[in-house]
Specification:
Blueprint (H helix, E strand, L loop, with lengths): L34 E2 L11 E7 L13 E6 L4 E4 L5 H7 L10 E2 L10 H11 L6 E6 L8 H11 L1 H7 L10 E6 L6 E6 L2 E7 L8 E7 L4 E5 L7 H6 L5 E5 L5 H8 L3 H11 L3 H11 L3 E5 L5 H12 L6 E3 L5 E5 L4 E6 L12 H8 L8 E4 L12 H5 L24 E4 H6 L5
Parallel strand pairs: 1-16, 4-5, 5-6, 6-7, 11-12, 12-13, 13-14
Antiparallel strand pairs: 2-3, 2-15, 3-4, 8-9, 9-10, 10-11, 15-16, 17-18
Helix pairs in contact: 6-7, 8-9
The structure holds zinc ion (2 copies).
One zinc ion binds next to loops.
Length: 432
């Protein structure tokens, strides 16, 4: 017998491997143990679902969008931690209606963590998210480097798009309520609603203004940490104490392999890691110090050829439950009794999901009072006021291309106010 035989740290028996605890099992609310089919499963009242709707920093890949994590709670609350490039398509494919994409926590302002924000704002506003978007993020060393400045600059960038979309109802959907916090604060509360708090702490990531987040759901005792990007640090160990789901970025310390693959000088690769990122060895070290119920790695160049090496580096320090939050979309269900991981089965051409009445109520009437009618300004700026008439005059007469039996009257103006019967909207599920 070899001198040192590996053993299951949880004391598990045959058939469960040497790193899987007995709580690695489907939660009692899961309907399919192998796949997550969006829209077919209701979260339990004491259940949390963490979905990696984006998982890479760079390069973007067919199966990896920019970093983004969706956290859904059994009380109906949704949270988004970062919103990288391409993540919106995964979020929509997960069956999340546009009105429910809100409460976005940005860890720092590297664009792989927020690139889909400017893309989604005008489109979700015009798709019925007529309430302000809530965005949270750190300040920087100067006012022009903080989250609020980024949002202001983004609004300027979207000037043409915002104004053009004012031909249709957008309500207050362009408004962005920014909660910019002092990045140096340790465990400052930036969200506190429905018994759910989100706190933050600073991280070392090359520049002032990088944060980690911790979500605590009091009623169930469940908790979640997203480190954002950064070097392994003591604050992360301290403030992740007792956490259920600990998610970290990782940059595998494989500079030589990277130089062979990408033709990138090893020294520069190492320099980026050593000033900004968490190596796979550091990841194992953090996991071991923190002892979460599940440790996850995301923000990773997920590659079959090197993943085993990442696992080996993690296992040099940590023998507990470790999973990849990559590639897109891995789904982790968590209760106090169980942790389970599955792959989401996503439609390739799925369209936007219709919100349920409960979701609409939550998004539109969070205080619970439901009016008889919703009055909305249908058109802040009709096209007659933002387009030279000659461009309409060169349009071809629809009678020349529309078959006469389907010819209808053109809708070129909406009535001055739209009164939407709310009750009917909430009741109607399209089966009348
Ligand atoms: Zn990043
Ligand atoms: Zn970064």
């Amino acid at each position: 017998m070899p001198e040192k035989m590996p053993s299951n740290p949880y004391g598990g028996g045959p058939g469960v491997g040497i790193s899987l605890p007995d709580y690695y099992k489907p939660t009692k609310y899961i309907s399919n143990n192998n796949f997550y089919f969006p829209g077919t499963e209701t979260l339990g009242a004491d259940e949390m679902r963490v979905s990696f709707v984006g998982s890479t920093p760079w390069p973007p890949r067919i199966k990896q969008a920019g970093t983004a994590i969706m956290v859904e709670l059994g009380n109906g609350d949704n949270f988004f931690f970062d919103l990288g490039n391409g993540s919106i398509k995964n979020i929509l494919a997960m069956g999340v209606p546009p009105v429910m994409i809100n409460d976005i926590f940005i860890s720092h302002l590297h664009v792989d963590h927020y690139a889909d924000l400017p893309y989604m704002i005008p489109f979700t506003a015009s798709a019925g998210r007529w309430d302000p978007l809530r965005v949270y993020g750190p300040d920087g060393a100067r006012p022009d480097l903080g989250t609020a400045a980024m949002i202001d600059n983004m609004k300027k960038m979207l000037g043409w798009h915002f104004e053009e979309f004012d031909f249709m109802p957008t309500g207050d959907g362009y408004q962005i309520d920014v909660t910019e916090f002092d990045h140096r604060d340790e465990m400052g509360v930036i969200y506190d609603k429905n018994g759910v708090t989100v706190r933050h702490w600073p991280r070392s990531h090359g520049k002032d203004g990088a944060s980690a987040y911790r979500l605590d759901w009091e009623e169930t005792g469940l908790s979640f940490v997203w480190t954002g990007d950064g070097r392994p640090d003591e604050l992360t160990i301290k403030y992740s104490e007792g956490v259920d789901v600990f998610v970290s970025e990782v940059q595998s310390d494989l500079g030589y392999i990277a130089s062979l693959k990408y033709g990138y000088p090893q020294e520069i690769y190492n320099y980026v890691i050593d000033t900004h990122h968490t190596t796979h060895y550091a990841l194992g070290y953090l996991f071991n110090e923190i002892q979460p119920r599940v440790g996850l790695a995301t923000h990773i160049e997920y590659e079959p050829g090197t993943n085993n090496e990442v696992v080996a580096g993690v296992r040099a320090h940590y023998d507990g439950l470790f999973l990849f939050g990559a590639p897109d979309v891995q789904v982790i269900n968590v209760t106090k009794d169980a942790v389970w991981s599955r792959e989401a089965v996503l439609p390739e051409f799925g369209t936007v999901s219709r919100p349920t009445p409960e979701q609409l109520k939550k998004a539109w009437f969070p205080d619970g009072e439901i009016p008889e009618f919703l009055e909305i300004d249908p058109c802040k700026l009709p096209r007659e006021e933002q387009q030279d008439p000659y461009l309409r005059e060169i349009e071809i007469d629809p009678a020349l291309y529309t078959p006469p039996d389907v010819m209808r009257e053109l809708v070129t103006r909406l009535p001055p106010t739209l009164k939407i019967p709310v009750g009917e909207m909430l009741d109607s599920q399209g089966d009348e």
